[in-house]
Amino acid sequence: MEQPPIKPPRGVKPIKETSGLLMSVIRTLSASETNEQRDREKAKLENEYKQSDRKLDELILKHENNLTKVMQLFSALSQQISESREKIHTVKENLKACKTLLHCHRDELRKLWLEGLEYKYMLQLLEEVEKMIEVPNQLTNYLAKKHYLHATELLVRAVSLGKRSLDGVEGLKELSQELESKKEHLHLQLVNELRQHLYVKPAQNALVLRRQGSGKEGLFSSPLQRSIELRVSSRQRTAVRRNLLEPSKSTSKKKEFEIEEDLEVTDPEADSAKFMGILVKCLMLLDKLPFAVDKLKMEMQSELLTIVQRTTIYINDYSAIQSDIKQTKQNALLELMLTLFEQFKEVGEAHALLLTHLIRAAEGHAVPVKVYDMSLFWAQVQSVLQLLLNDYLDIQNISNESQLVDNFTDPNDISSYFSRRKQQTKKQSLFKFEGSLSALTMSSNAKDIPSSRNSREKILVCSPDANNITLIFIPLMCFIEEIEQMLKLNQGVSCSLHLFVANYITDGFIMRKRAETMVQIDMAVRAADAWKTTVLLDATTDYKPLLLSAITVEKCIREWRELLRTLPSYSEQLLKSVCIALKEYKDTCLAAYQGIVQPHSEDRRICSAAWLKDEDISRFLKSLPNWLNLKAQQECQTRNDRRKTNRDLHPEEESPEDVRQRNRREAEILGSNLGEGGVSAGEILSDMLLLKELAQLQESMEWFSVRMLQFIRELRQEPSLAPAQSTPDPPLSVSSATLQQLTSIAQDFDELANTCLLLLHLEVRVQCFHYLLAQSEYNKETHEPDPKVLELSRVLANVDEAMTSSLQPRKCKYIFEGLGHLIAKILISSSQYMKNIDETGIQRMCRNVFALQQTLTNITMTREVALDHARHYFELFFLTPEEILNAIVEKGPEFSELEYMNAFQLLSRSKGVKGTDLVNKYMQKLCDILGEVGVTV
Prior knowledge:
two-stranded antiparallel ribbon
């Protein structure tokens, strides 16, 4: 089917070919001169018209259907146009009639129009009144479900409506006042809700998480374990919380603060971050945002103190059901601090979220509010912790402790207890807390909140004590480190809480601890029987009673060692205090030693003590084999004690000849120095109690030096000597100079112990010279030994009894070993001082030797072969000089040439031989014989 004809577009005019052709024909006819031309033109036109008719007929036939449709459509359109013209004409007639009528009733219409406006406005007011009446119920519903944003928007609209359009409605004045009052109270409720989400809920969440996390091990676990866990994880937790100071960085680009409230949510507080944003927007709508920020800043410290009080009550309630009250009280403070740290961190995160919303609100809506930053919050946290530490560390009584230090005189006065020393003046106050930074901070805080802090009843989990710092120091410093990292302080700059703790420990705690240690040492050494009272630490035979003062000081050192573990950051200051205490105790022990060996003036000295002051003699005694053997046994004993092994420390048995050779040189040196002048009674220690005190002092000093050296090894973290721990403490930062000073002091104690032992060793030998070389009157007819010999035997027995109860067996062996050689040397040398000797005298000397030999045998539990040698010497006097010479030729020399010469001279004096010719003859023969056989003695 062919398409119907298309109407040409408007504005397009068809080419008027017909008119142009007609004009051309008209011009041709006008210009023709004859009828023939006109006929030809006429015939031409007729022919063309016929062709046109024929073409038109063909086209009509061809487009008959389309033409029919077009005609029908044209007829319909023409009819519709005619009808529309009739209607328009009718409307025009009506409008003309209305115009005519309106001109007739203009005033009446204006009046009706105004009345319609009034009725419409009254209807609008009635609708607003109905809405106002429903506002209280809707507001109550919103507030009950904590849909604060809808409630605030509703209330703001209602109050604004009451002030504008409904201001003159008398019936709504009471309702408007009620809504105005609710608006004034709503911002307080919003601030309280904000306070709940800033402090109460974060603190409760932290407490619940901590209780759940410690459920397996109990709420109060080991303080050491807690401290180690905190040291390990503090850096990891700090990295997570570093962005708390800059909460607005990620959201600062947002220009608008838009937040929506979902009415279908049953618990709007579940999402705390969004809920706080809603509260901020509500306060912004109420124009109370500046007031809320100021209120939060003003009440920040009091709210933190409230958290402390609630947590303290909770810890007290939990600790009340524990069985071990003492242990619980010790761990309760640590648990309180750890819980508070977690709570403060949670509260800090809540403040960071709040600051994010505040900054967005202030920037997005141009609210003039001075937003605080996180540094203010952490400053308040530090102030609260300072107040808390002030209660638990008993800082308010630090001034009383400083008075104790003032009343305690210079520790050098302890030494003056034993010797005459110049008294030193009293020290000034070591520490006054009133002028420290922490005291000034606390006083300013107290002025800021006079009623909130003072009105609270102080509820503590444990009694205030300065030693509480040792329980909480490590976790406290971990928390301080996190605060300083979040505050982004420069290198070397510390926060106020760090300075507070540092001032307290260095200027208060360590000073007071040092004063307490000095007082304990002073009380231990100034007691009436301070150098007599002993305590047996171990019942085994290798251990002997130790002086109570040494045990007291060692206990103090162990306490300081514990302080090094709990206060590792102050190891240098602690060790310096240890050095001071040890120096004073060392001076006291030296004074005690001087009080024993020098009881009178400088002119009256004990012979053995005077000898030991000579460095050559002291070095000689320490170079002898018996001393070296003793020190080797001591070192082996110490090493085995550290390794906790039981090993036989007794050396192999030595032959009598080896023992004689080992002790011969000492006997010769002592004999050459003491054999000529003798020793008076004033030059010996005749009181056995003094010798026992020396022995106890030696044993205590040696034990104390060993413990000190072990303490120093632990400080140096030697792997083989450090105690085994599953989680070892970190190495302490101790300077080499301090360690060297401690080592020097420990060596001084060891040197004092060596001096005491050498003195006892020498004293026994000096007393042998005193008794054996003394000239005494005795009954020549009796067969008993000399009285001095009997007295020496008694003295040796008493010395053995005193030493055995005070010294270890190896030391007793050192004191008495070689004594038989010395006694034999003294007895043999005494022959040169005898005027004569007879058979009775020879027998008496043999009995003297036997008595001494029996005494020494009972002491050393070995036969003293050297005294047999002395007895053989005196048996020579039963022989004649010729018989002695013949015996030398037959058996060889048994004694030295000098001893034989003294024997020949005594035999000559005893037989009354005058002159020296005969004696010289025997001596010459002796020289010849000894030159031939060789001296083997």
